[in-house]
């Protein structure tokens, strides 16, 4: 709801501030008084582009600020959160235009761009002006009208859930197919690499252990010679070390009673003798084990050569890393076998979701088709009431080739203004005044079901008078019971239904003419409506007629 509008330095408006009713607001005034200027200023905070010619004074900025009460409008609050804008009960939109023509826009004092402003404004204000391209000609709005009348929001929600799940399943299936294609391309190469490693049949740490063994065998003769010499000197020489130590031990042992330190020294000599004998035995054992084996050396060389080629090929340094690569390749090869099963499972799931979505789409179509004739009949009846007796609306619901987020229907509102039986899309044939009245008729039918924004009808009364104007007023009044409606009008019948009646007039200030606006009291309304009925000097009959309009 638009609570307040502040305008400064716009066209011939010096400064005005207006508080609005939450129901039916009527704006009247003589032609040229500035009603269209008022709507032009409002359009700036709705995201329209700036025309620098509207700047009244070039030495100061132009300001237009609207204060909106957003109440429970979830779409508005969601948009504000998504755009990182403050969510408050009151929403202040401000547009500033500098003398150089550059403009800035703010939402709750946070700068926004024009696209953000346009998106937000469509949720707040529905402005219908002569010759505008209106949402009435847009397929999404036309679908919303049928859906609102069908009252199948729960079915639509179920369908959109199934459709989203099906789309997701289709995307996952496509990814699996791409993986399979990639796996298939790589399969032969991976199979070759795996077979190579499998045939090598490497064991954990095998290459490292083989390398150590090869070093031992390659030096076996030298090692054996050294061990033999050590063993000979320890146990078998002309004067073996073990025997010499035993002899020295015996010689010194004869004097243990003569010196207190000798027993401990002899004990140490005995330990050395035992250790030296043990070393001699170990040398002999090792010597027996070390054997030069040319055949074994050749086998190890072949094994290490094979292993080193694989290490170099795969760019790694250890047997363990090769074994990890082998396991990875095996998993990839297995994945190729498993992915067909995964694809089949996903195809089945996607098919089930498609079937569910198709069934729900069929329900949506059936519900929409049921509403076509009642909508046509009601709108065409209302069109007669609002002064368009020759105009007719036709609603076409045709199937689409594929499912879409809103179903499988192409919905088109067609219009014939002159009983020519040549129905054309609304956006192509309806004039501005016809569109406004047609929109009023349609929105009055769906007002209880759609969360409509503030509705503004700019000169919806073009080409009508008398009873047609009265019927337009009745429809507007009914529409305004649960939402805010504005109408700029020249018709007294419409003005008489106002909850708040604003009068736009020109005022001479100094040497210039300014546009002003004021909220009329009941008596002022009666006078203003009487002037609309009979001229600048209303007759007593006109005043009485005007009083009856206001009181009723």
From TrEMBL:
Residues 159-220 form a coiled coil. InterPro entries: DNA_recomb/repair_RecN, P-loop_NTPase, RecF/RecN/SMC_N. Keywords: ATP-binding, Coiled coil, DNA damage, DNA repair, Nucleotide-binding. Signal peptide: none annotated. Residues 1-507 form the RecF/RecN/SMC N-terminal domain. Pfam families: SMC_N (PF02463). CDD domains: ABC_RecN (cd03241). Belongs to the RecN family. NCBIfam families: recN (TIGR00634). May be involved in recombinational repair of damaged DNA. This is DNA repair protein RecN. It comes from Niastella soli. The gene is recN.
């Amino acid at each position: 709801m638009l609570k307040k509008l502040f305008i400064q330095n716009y066209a011939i408006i010096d400064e005005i501030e207006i508080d609005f009713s939450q129901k039916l607001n009527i704006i009247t005034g003589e032609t040229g008084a500035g009603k269209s200027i008022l709507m032009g200023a409002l359009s700036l905070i709705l995201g329209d582009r700036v025309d620098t010619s509207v700047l009244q004074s070039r030495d100061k900025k132009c300001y237009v600020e609207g204060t909106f009460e957003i109440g429970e409008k979830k779409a508005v609050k969601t948009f504000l959160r998504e755009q990182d804008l403050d969510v408050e009960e009151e929403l202040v939109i401000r547009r500033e235009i500098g003398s150089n023509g550059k403009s800035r826009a703010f939402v709750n004092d946070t700068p926004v761009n024009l696209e953000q402003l346009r998106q937000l404004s469509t949720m707040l204000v529905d402005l219908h002006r002569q010759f505008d391209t209106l949402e009435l000609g847009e397929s999404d709005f036309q679908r919303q009208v049928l859906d609102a009348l069908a009252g199948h929001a729960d079915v639509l929600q179920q369908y959109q859930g199934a459709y989203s799940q099906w789309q997701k399943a289709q995307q996952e299936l496509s990814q699996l197919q791409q993986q399979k294609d990639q796996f298939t391309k790589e399969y032969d190469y991976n199979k070759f690499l795996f077979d190579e490693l499998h045939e090598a049949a490497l064991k954990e740490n095998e290459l490292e252990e083989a390398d150590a063994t090869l070093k031992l065998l390659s030096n076996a003769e030298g090692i054996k010679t050294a061990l033999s010499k050590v063993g000979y000197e320890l146990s078998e020489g002309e004067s073996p070390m073990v025997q010499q130590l035993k002899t020295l031990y015996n010689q010194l042992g004869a004097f243990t009673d003569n010196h207190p330190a000798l027993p401990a020294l002899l004990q140490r000599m005995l330990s050395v003798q035992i250790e030296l004998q043990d070393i001699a035995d170990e040398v002999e054992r090792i010597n027996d084990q070390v054997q030069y084996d040319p055949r074994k050396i050749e086998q190890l060389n072949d094994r290490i050569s094979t292993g080193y080629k694989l290490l170099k090929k795969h760019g790694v340094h250890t047997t363990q890393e090769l074994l990890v690569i082998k396991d990875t390749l095996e998993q990839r090869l297995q994945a190729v076998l498993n992915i067909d099963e995964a694809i089949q499972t996903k195809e089945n799931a996607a098919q089930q979701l498609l079937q569910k979505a198709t069934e729900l789409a069929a329900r949506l179509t059936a519900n929409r088709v049921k509403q076509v004739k009642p909508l046509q009949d009601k709108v065409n009846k209302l069109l007669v009431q609002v002064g368009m007796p020759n105009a007719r609306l036709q609603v076409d619901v045709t199937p689409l080739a594929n499912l879409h987020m809103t179903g499988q229907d192409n919905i088109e509102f067609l219009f014939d203004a002159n009983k020519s039986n040549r129905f054309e899309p609304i956006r192509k044939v309806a004039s501005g005044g016809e569109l406004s009245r047609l929109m009023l008729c349609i929105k009055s039918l769906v007002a209880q079901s759609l969360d409509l924004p503030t509705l503004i009808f700019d000169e919806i009364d073009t080409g009508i008078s008398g009873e047609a104007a009265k019927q337009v007023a009745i429809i507007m009044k009914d529409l305004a019971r649960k939402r805010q409606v504005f109408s700029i009008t020249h018709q007294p019948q419409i003005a008489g239904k106002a909850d708040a009646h604003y009068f736009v007039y020109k005022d001479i200030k100094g040497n210039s003419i300014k546009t002003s606006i004021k909220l009329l009291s009941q008596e002022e309304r009666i006078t203003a409506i009487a002037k609309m009925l009979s001229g600048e000097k209303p007759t007593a009959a006109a005043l009485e007629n005007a009083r009856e309009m206001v009181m009723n």
